[in-house]
Amino acid sequence: MQNLLEALVAKHRPAAREGKVAEYIPELAGQNPDLLGVAVVNPQGEMHAAGAYRHRFTLQSISKLIALMVALMDHGEEVIFSKVGMEPTGDPFHSLYKLEIASEAKPLNPMINAGAIVVSSLIRGKSVDDRVKRMIHLVREMAENPEIDLDRAVYRSERETADRNRALAYFLKGCGVIDDVEETLDVYFRQCSICVDCLDLARMGLCLAQNGVTLEGKRVIPEDVARLAKTFMVTCGMYNASGEFAIRAGIPAKSGVSGGILALVPGRMGIGVFGPALDKKGNSITGVRLLEDFSKKMGLSIF
Ligand code: GLU
């Protein structure tokens, strides 16, 4: 396994040249595009990792999974899915398009920005800080790493430049779907800036692979909530490339624009990948290729 991971990093790292780091969040624009790291953890606690697996990065869209799970624990399925749908969109993650043409302003799913902003508005807590702390707490529990925290520079950088997300949020407010734009976006930007490395992601993936039970055996997510999160990973986790990824890799995965991908094989392993050069759809170009190759070589597809 160790040799395989090292060979995969060496093989796929050059593809970074074909991608580009996210530039619309200025703080992410400075990331080194050539980094590529991977970590894999299995239920026996065996861990293998290669490349830049200790490099830290922000969750970005991977946090949409965390927010969804906390909101589901707060309110249950019925409330959440009365406000946000369950269908893939085929549109880019920050698109306004479907929101406006739909008969009701109900974002199509919680993995696109509009849906995630609605989900963030539903997280319970006395203050923004309190609500974000609850998400950080879940990430720490899943990864069994109490050190995990926010990257404040990335948070501030996104908050200052997030015109598109503000447009989405004002549209949602105009339709009566959310109340307070700045407060909701503050929750959303902070959750996006939770900072991890590939090992954290791999342990988080393992927790989902075990239906909400951590490597050390602690249940931190109810089974039905973990199942729901994994289903969204398959149908909507890789933006509007989720169908292609399901065919080529066949494993639940969620990516973010910082270049991270949280992936898993049910009952077998958690996988964390980081490669900040993105393809046109916003997925890590090297990360996707590495995962597809890894899945084929190991026969991991769930289908
Ligand atoms: N914070 C990012 C945004 O809202 C997350 C997007 C992503 O990772 O897809 O634009």
Q: State mean pLDDT (0 to 100 scale).
A: 95
Unreliable stretches covering 5 or more consecutive residues: none
**SSE series:** HHEEEHHHHHEHHHEHHHEEEH
Q: Count every helix, treating DSSP H or I runs of 4 or more residues as helices.
A: 14
List cofactors, ions and other ligands. Answer: glutamic acid
Structural class by sheet pairing and helices: alpha+beta
Find the count of extended strands (DSSP E, 2+ residues): 8
Radius of gyration: 18 Å
Structural description of this entry:
This protein has 303 residues and is of the alpha+beta class. Helix content is 49%, strand content 11%. The protein has helices at residues 2-12, 26-29, 63-75, 77-83, 97-101, 113-122, 128-143, 152-161, 163-174, 181-192, 198-209, 223-236, 242-248, 285-298, and strands at 37-41, 47-51, 57-58, 149-150, 194-196, 253-255, 260-265, 269-274. The strands form two sheets. It has a five-stranded antiparallel sheet. Helix 7 (128-143) packs parallel to helix 10. The longest helix is centred in the middle third of the chain and has 16 residues, at 128-143. The radius of gyration is 18 Å and the shape is globular. The two termini are 22 Å apart. The model has no long low-confidence stretch (mean pLDDT 95). Residues 60-61, 93-94, 113, 158, 165, 192, 256-257, 282 line the site of glutamic acid (GLU).
